[in-house]
Structure formats: structure tokens, C-alpha cells
Amino acid sequence: MEKAKIDRINELARASKVRELTEEEKTEQKILRDEYRASFRLSLTSQLDNTVIVDPEGNRRSLRKN
After folding, report:
1. 43/21 Cα distance (integer angstroms)
2. pTM higher than 0.85, yes or no?
3. Is the pLDDT of residue 64 over 80?
4. Are residues 1 and 39 in contact, defined by beta-carbon separation less than 8 angstroms?
């Protein structure tokens, strides 16, 4: 996710603490947050797919679901 979008999420969050957001801002905030969550999940899933566990005997085991 681009830094500009993350900055916009934070800007809307700060504004919501000071005043009521307009319907357009609420919609934009929801879309941006959903995109951020999807990006986060994809990144985490990718990281876990590439993670292995090494047991005491030195065997490497993937965390991937089989």
C-alpha cells in the first residue's frame, strides 16, 4: 500500500477525533481501511508461507497448510 494512502487513513482518523466526518469521508475511510487490511493479510500470509520451523533434530518443517 502506498504511503500516501496510509497518510490519508491517518489524516481521516485524526479528523474524526475533532469533528464528525462527512459521508464521503466515511466511505473513503472504509475503502482505505479495507485495502490496508487486505494488504496486511497478504503480506503476513506471504511471510508465514516462507517460514520454516527447525526441530531439535535439524528437520525443517514448513508452516504451510497441506
Report:
1. 30
2. no
3. no
4. yes
